Each structure stands twice: as structure tokens, then as C-alpha cells.
Amino acid sequence: MTTPPVVLWFRRDLRLSDNAALSAALASGRPVIPVFILDDVTPGAWAPGGASRWWLHHSLQALEADLRKRGSGLVLRRGSYDSVLPQLVAETGAGEVHTGEAMEPWARRAIDALSRRLPIRQHRTSLLFHPNEIRTGSGTPYGVFTPFARTCERSYMPTPMVPSPARIASLALPASDVLASWKLLPTKPDWAVGWSAIHTPGEAGALARLQEFQPRVKAYDDARNLPGIEGTSRLSPHLAWGEISPNTVWQSVQHDGTGKGLATFRSELLWREFSAHLLWHFPALPDAPLKPAYAAFPWRQDDRALRAWQRGETGIPIVDAGMRQLWTTGWMHNRVRMIVASFLIKHLLLPWRDGEAWFWDTLVDAELAANAASWQWVAGSGADAAPFFRVFNPVLQGEKFDADGAYVRCYVPELAHVELKYLHSPWLASSPPRHYPPPIVNLAFGRQRALDALKTITKSAA
After folding, report:
1. What are phi and psi of 183, to 5 degrees?
2. Does 296 lie in the same domain as 232?
3. What is the mean pLDDT of the chain?
4. What is d(CA 180, CA 249) in angstroms, rounded to the nearest whole number?
């Protein structure tokens, strides 16, 4: 009698090393059928955006190549989870399905429903902790980051980093879609021109990025705030798609860094955990303010201003540099993300959900939890949020964190020859640059308008 195989269902854990679902599938002693299902219907508005689809295409290519080196392959199927997975199990006679735990509300619902029909085993593959593991002393979810992070630091128990298997036993694999037929890549115009020279999707790219970053951990606390240098890890898209485990990252950097730099980097890994914690316990996080009072906030609708922000044509150099970096590379420096978000929400008084949706479509590292939690943090409506009355002055932010102007000059070439003292406020120069727009909003006016808007909702929102 033929031993029934097991299905290894990849989702956002596109790697072979330190993957608990893969380890469990191999431990079963049965042939393994690796599969990835593209369900871009059930998630609705939260189906992968354009930049994520570009990354996913290349990441799946890399994963399939890694599997083939080990005597296996990758089955690609497109459709809703609730129809594709049962069909695949029926085709193969699989005795079990091993997969990573889902955090997205739509995926949780789908997998919970499937688990009542199929032998699905879920494993923690994308986080250090399951969101139910970290609780306050009274057993409730955390709503403030600092005590959450402290609890995580105390609770973390290093586990061995499991290397990639040398071989994956497999039967003849069932029929697979051709990746190109999914049309994940842009056609005309190809807005991702040059991205392959910047990003290396896949597990090998993730490990190389980690190795390159490790010696720089010590300087991370200061360097991470300077967008004009290579001061961050650039691991976010690899973590978002699970090409590297947070366990691997956590343990690898601790051997090469000490002091404040390491602590700050760990804190940012734990912000990602906190975001998942919030999404798990508050599944409406991507769509509604966590603080109910903000549902009545008097946002403006201004399509012209939104387009100017999206295109990097606001007349505010550090904002425009960030938005152009995002469009041309699919990634934006984290300090600048906060600046552009504050400008959209507060100076322009446009809804945080407009920014969240744009980032979702244009970031290669878009994760539902982190994207939603971070936008709500800036808007003052989320857990442990920055108060709404904290309004970043983008000129001062530019002068402080891009003091030599390298970042702005790189992404806003119209300002290449502007004198440094006017670079972050070119409208003050005696001869403002002719081919760069004036600010779309007076910064003092925008700030006061935001503070006046805050007064219209209840005090509990502040």
C-alpha cells in the first residue's frame, strides 16, 4: 500500500530553513507535496498589491529552484483556499496538510473552516510568538508596546535554527500552474524597471542581506534614522514573505551587536510582533480606528492633494524624496515613512486609510498587520499611538536627518543645485527652483488646521 503523502502549504513562509511546517512534514516520514495557492479573491481589498506581486513572482521562482535542488518541486494553484486545497488533497490522497499560522483575518477564517474538513496542522513560521502567548498580568491583550516588548524579551527562549534539508522526498507532483500565467509582473508601463538590481527576493537573498547587515548592528541606533546612508537592515520584505525567520534574525544579530544598537533593532522586530498581536485580537485594525472616537474625525477629501502626495509633488523636499523612493524602488526608509505619513494625515488632513492603501500597493514589504498598526500609530487612533497633536515638521526633520541633503538630492534632482541651507525649504530661497512646485500647503496653517480638527472629537481621542 502506498504511503499517503503530506501537503506542505506555503503561505508567507517561502523558505526551507528554520521552517516549522516543513520540519513537521519531513518528520512525518511521508512524501511531501509542496504547494503555494494564490488566493487573490477572498482577501478583497487586501489581496497583494502591485509591488508585493512583483516580489512574490521572484520569490516563488527562487523557492521552486531551491526545492528542485532537493529532488522536489512546487505546485502552483490559483483560486480560493476553500476550493483549491480540498481538491488538491483529494487528488493526492494526502493524509495531512502542514502550513504556517495565518494572521490575516480572512485567512484565519478560511483555514479555520477548512480545518473542520481537512487534517490541517498549523505551525508558527512567521513570528517569534503566537499572539495568544503574550498577555498582560490580567490575561488581556496588550495595548501598549513597551510592556509588550518587555514581556517578549523575558519570554523568548532561543530554539535551534534548523538548516535547509539536503533532500525532500516526494512523489510525482500533481499538475501545476505556470507561474508566468499568473501575470504577477507589470507589463506596460513596467514601473519595476531596475528593481532586480536593488532587491534579491528569495531565501538566499534574505540570508545575504542578513550577513551584510550583521556588522552594522552596533551603529543601528543612530544610523537607522539617516535615509541618505545604508543604515537599516533592508530585511523587511524578506520577513514579510517569510524568506527568513524572525528566529534566525534575532539569534544571528545578537552575536554581532551589543548595547543600544542591538536593543533598538530588537525593538523593531518586536514592533512587528506587536502589530501581529493587535491584528489577531482586533481584526478590524486595517479598516477602522482602534480608538472609536476617531471614527468621527473630520477628514478632508482632496484628490488633487492625494495625487500630489502619491507622486512626490508636494513641494516639501523630504516628503517628495520619500514618495519617489517608494515609487522607483518599492521601498522607503522607515524614518521617512513616518514623515510622509504625518504630512498626509496632519498637514493635508487626509484619511490614514488613503496612505495605508497606497503603501499596500507600492511597498514590497507590505504586511497587513504592520502597515495598519503603523498608520494608526501616526494617526493617533491606534494602540500605543503617537498623539495626534504630535505633528512632524518636515523641514526640521529633513534638516536633522538629511543634514547633508544626500537623500533629497538623490530622489529630487530638481533640487540638485539648490544651496544646502535652502534645500529643505526651497521656497525661501531668493530664486526658488523653477521646475519644482511650491508647497501645496502652508506648514503652519496645516498644523493648526489639524489641531483644530482634533478639538472636534471627544477628549478620549487625544
Report:
1. 55, 50
2. no
3. 95
4. 31
Is residue 179 assigned to a domain? Answer: no
CA dihedral 233, 380, 448, 357 (to 10 degrees): 60
Q: What's the rounded Cα separation, in Å, for the pair 331 and 334?
A: 9
Residue 69 belongs to domain spanning: 6-126
pLDDT at 258: 61
CATH code, domain carrying 114: 3.40.50.620
Average pLDDT over residues 416-445: 96
Q: Does residue 189 belong to any structural domain of this protein? A: no
36-46, pLDDT tens digit by residue? 999 999 999 99
pLDDT of residue 171: 84
Catalytic residues: 268, 271, 299, 334, 352, 375
In a domain, 117, yes or no: yes
Q: Do 319 and 346 touch, CB atoms closer than 8 A? A: no
How many structural domains are present in the chain?
3
**Are 421 and 377 members of one domain?**
yes
Are residues 347 and 399 located together in one domain of the fold? yes
Supply the pLDDT for residue 256: 52
Confidence (pLDDT) at 387 = 81
Nearest partner of 192 among 38, 326, 313, judged by Cα: 326
Exposed/middle/buried for 422, CB within 10 Å: 0-12, 13-18, 19+?
middle
Could you tell me the CATH number of the domain that includes residue 143?
A: 1.25.40.80
pTM above 0.85, yes or no: yes
For helices 317-329 and 394-401, what crossing angle results, to 10°?
A: 70
Q: Which has the minimum average pLDDT: 76-80, 168-172, 351-355? A: 168-172
Burial (CB count <10 Å: 0-12, 13-18, 19+), residue 47: middle
Alpha-carbon distances of 399 from 61, 414, 438, rounded to whole Å: 42, 18, 18
Q: What's the whole-number mean pLDDT along residues 234-256? A: 92
